[in-house]
Write a structure and sequence with these properties.
6 helices, 14% strand, Rossmann fold, alpha/beta, 226 residues, seven-stranded mixed beta sheet
Length: 226
């Protein structure tokens, strides 16, 4: 089987890197932080520094999205567009938040326009302010859930795809009764306590999702490159 050169951007956990690597691909991850698993297949850098290095597939897993997603819109603007927000996070200024917004937009667009045939960028559904700044060819994201892939958990995950098919569920689990103890356990990502590591818990890729990505996107990219 042909091996692909794959870059996993904005990942420290190594979950997606390991899934593709297990299938024989030449895979590297990168992030501004070191890899949690201490892998020597991880580069500490801005993903944009590596986009021109001849990759077959780019998967950007957790780019900063706080200012781009719908839940964060209230901090960016009041009614209408770019009116003064009614409230700001403690200790933050409008200038801070808009700088983060501009950086998030820039990173997303640079990755989307990367000279790579197959691209997947994980991001929630965007707010209207961010969507106005996106390329016209950007599709709506595919929203998947971990329980579609055998993981007993809720975590709506959006993938913006270029040159790749939408994921097909592999092992859909029956959902628990809402409000039950099992349902609460499935909702642990959303119920994570507000600690310094909360972002890691909320951003970590589930192994079942990573396995599906590696199988389905890897096989598709190989066929397209043949």
């Amino acid at each position: 089987m042909r091996s692909l050169r794959i870059l996993i951007g904005c990942e420290t956990s190594g979950v997606m890197r390991r899934a593709f690597s297990a299938r024989g691909h030449d895979v590297w991850s990168c992030d501004l932080l070191p890899a949690e698993d201490g892998s020597n297949r991880h580069i500490v850098c801005d993903v944009r520094d590596l986009l021109d290095d001849g990759w077959d597939l780019l998967a950007v897993m957790h780019p900063p999205c706080t200012r781009l997603c719908r839940s964060g819109r209230r901090w960016m603007s009041g009614p209408g567009k770019w009116t003064p927000p009614k409230k700001l996070p403690r200790g933050r200024t409008v200038e801070d938040l808009r700088a983060e917004f501009e950086e998030g937009v820039s990173l997303f667009i640079d990755c989307w326009r990367a000279p790579i045939v197959c691209v997947a960028i994980e991001n929630p559904v965007m707010n209207d302010l961010a969507r106005d700044r996106m390329p016209v060819d950007l599709p709506a994201p595919q929203i998947v859930q971990p329980f579609w892939f055998g993981e007993p958990a809720y975590k709506a995950t959006g993938f913006y795809l270029r040159g790749l098919p939408e994921l097909t569920e592999t092992n859909r689990l029956p959902e628990p009764e809402r409000g039950s103890d099992e349902w609460k356990a499935w909702s642990i990502v959303h119920r994570a306590p507000r600690t310094a590591d909360r972002w890691k818990i909320r951003s970590r890729t589930f192994e079942g999702v990573a396995e599906a990505c590696a199988d389905q996107w890897g096989e598709y990219a190989i066929k397209e490159a043949a």
